[in-house]
Amino acid sequence: MPEWNSFSYAFGPLLALVGVLVIIWMLKRAGFDEKPDPEEPEHVRAPIIGPMSWADANRVAKQLQEAGLEGAISDQGDGFRVTVPADDVAQGRRVIWSELFPGS
């Protein structure tokens, strides 16, 4: 392209730089640059029962939530497991035990 002038060699790298900046801007808008807050403690979750079907895991998680615990369901490939924060494992197992065997 002889009509561009002697700076035509710079257009390719300049266009690539603009493309990279656009990609970085898009990733930041999507939230990929958010870093975890170092002040916030990391919540370690422990499984209390599983593997089981989705319906059973959902029932157990609801029972834990009714008892005031934070029950969550995780898919492990071989079935679903119900997890609670590591500090609430003993209390969560007592809730499940009392639901399975009332009067014990």
Which features would summarize this protein structure in a list?
104 residues; alpha+beta; Alpha-Beta Plaits; 2 domains; 43% helix
Layout: helices, strands, pairs:
Blueprint: H1 11-30, E1 45-52, H2 54-66, E2 72-75, E3 80-85, H3 89-100
Antiparallel strand pairs: 1-3, 2-3
**CATH homology superfamily name of the largest domain:** Hypothetical protein rpa1041
How many DSSP-defined strands? 3
Write down the CATH class of the largest domain: Alpha Beta
How many domains in all? 2
β-strand amount: 15-25%
Describe the 3D structure:
It is a single chain. The protein has 104 residues and is an alpha+beta fold. It has 2 domains: 1-34; 45-100, Alpha-Beta Plaits (2-Layer Sandwich). It is 43% helix and 17% strand. It contains 3 helices and 3 strands. It has helices at residues 11-30, 54-66, 89-100; strands at residues 45-52, 72-75, 80-85. It has a 3-stranded antiparallel β-sheet, with helices on one face. A hairpin with a 4-residue loop joins β2 (72-75) and β3. The longest helix has 20 residues, at 11-30. The chain starts with 10 loop residues before the first helix and ends with a helix. The mean pLDDT is 83.
Give a brief rundown of this model.
The chain is α+β, with helices and mostly antiparallel strands and 104 residues long.
